[in-house]
Structure formats: structure tokens, C-alpha cells
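#structure-requests
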Amino acid sequence: MIETSEWIAIWISLKAASVAVAGSLPLAIMAGYFLARWEGRGKTVIETVINMPLVLPPIVTGYLLLYFLGKQSAAGLFLEQTLEIRITFTWLGAAVAGAVVGFPLMVRAIRLSFQSINPRLEMAALGLGASPSRVFFTISLPLVKRGVVTGAVLGFARSLGEFGATMMTAGNIEGQTQTIPLAIFSEVQRPGGIEQSWRLVLVSIIIASLALIASERLDRKERIHGADSF
């Protein structure tokens, strides 16, 4: 039987991961489209910055977030004093950490989908007088909807499993910022905790498995759809 504290950790994890995806998905779509269509100078630098959370130790990512969003930073002071929004050591900190570490996966999935579109479709619409924004919203974006969903699923799963950056940015406050990974970590520190933490481990495996299965199915459909469009 899952205990109350474990249900709270599951709820915080789901809430933070959902907010992370909802907040970063529009940016991921823009970044994916930009990287798929632009071949100018500086593209490598932008790609490096976007993908940096994939290779940085999560603790380092969390440290940077804590540095730039904490009370000592200009951004942290503005958010807290002007907008009355506190990021660090709240569940929003977990959402921000999840958004940052999951962002590269979202961008990659969306970028590959944009690259699979037959460019003649967009060129034909532009030739008929449609504006670039109209082409994007009426042709390009609908054609990559499966890629967008795949990216969102991957970002959600990655955010849900984030540990190091969340620990640094949100802390490990039971009932407030403690996510599933942090709850498992806290549990195994106690005598007999390894035996008691199996419930959250099982929940994590189930959620991750469902996300991967959904992502793989959507990716397979996207590849078939992309092949048919040529």
C-alpha cells in the first residue's frame, strides 16, 4: 500500500513535470524549427548551448539554476519582489530543473520531425502568396504534431526522473518539493529503507515504461508519415 507521503511525492513529480513540459514546449518548437531550417553561422554554438544539459552533470545544471534564480541574483530578486514568484526551494524549482534537463530531448524530437517534411510543400505555399507565419501554423506545425507529442513525452519522462538538478534548485523538502527520485533517495538512507522504497521504484518504472512505449509508437508513425510525404 502506497503511503500518504509517497502519494504526495508522486503528485509533486507529476505536477512539476507537467508544468515543465507546458512551459518549455513552445520554446522547443521554435528551437526545433530554427535548427531544422537555418544553416547560418553560429548554428553549432546554439546547438551546443541547447544540448549542454545532456552532458553536464545534473548537479552542475542545478548549481547554475540556483545561482541565476536564487535570491542573490537579479532575476531571482525581480521574480520574488516584483512578481511575487519564488523559484528556488519550491516545487516550481523542480519544474524549472525538469524543463532545463528535458529541453534538449524535446528539441531533438521536434527538429527531426521538421526535417522530415517535404520542403516543396512549404515552398509551394509561399509561392502562392502565403506568409511565412501562415505556412508555419497551417502546414509545417500540423505535419509535425506527432513529433511534438513525442518530444513532450520524452521531456515529461526526463523531468519526472530528474534528481541532481532538482536537489540543488528545489531542495528535498518532504511534502513540498520532494519528488519521486528524492523520496527514494531519502528512504534508502534510513534503516530498512531499501525494502520500503520498492513501491516508488515500481511506480517510476511503470511511468517510464509507458512514456517510452508511447514515444516509440509515435516516432514509428512519424517516420512512416515522413516517408509518405515525399
